[in-house]
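Handout, page 2. Input:
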Amino acid sequence: MVHGILLARVPHGEVDDLVQDVFLSALRQLSALRDDGAFGGWLAMIARNRAYDYHRRAREFTELPDDLAAANRQTSEALAALEAIRGLPEAYRETLMLRLVEGMTGDEIAARTGITPASVRVNLHRGMKLLREKLGLTGGA
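Output:
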C-alpha cells in the first residue's frame, strides 16, 4: 500500500527510499497512534505526507539514464501508463496505483487506507474510465 501511494505521487526511482522513510517515521511515531484499527489509514497518511515533503524540497537537477536510446518498448509503455495514472485526479490516482500496480483488491485498499469500500469502488470505476480515455483505449474492462 505504501509503495503504491508513493508511486502515485513521486518519480519511480525515488519510491524505494521513500518507502523506507515512511516505515522509519511510522516506527518513531507509533506511540502517537491512538486506535489500532486506524493503523492502515494512519500509515497511508504518513506516506502521503512524505510524498508532499519530497515535492517541497527544491530539486536542482534531474538525473538521466546513461543510454536513453536503449530503453526498450515495454519500459516506455509502462512508464507512459504510469505517467497517465499520475495525471489523473488524486482520488483516482491512488486507488488505481494500489489496484493496478500493487495488485490490491478493492476491499484491501479500503481496509488499508481507511477509505470506505463504496468510495474505493467509485474511484476505481471512474479512474479506469478516465485512464482509458487518456490512453486512447475504448471499451473493455
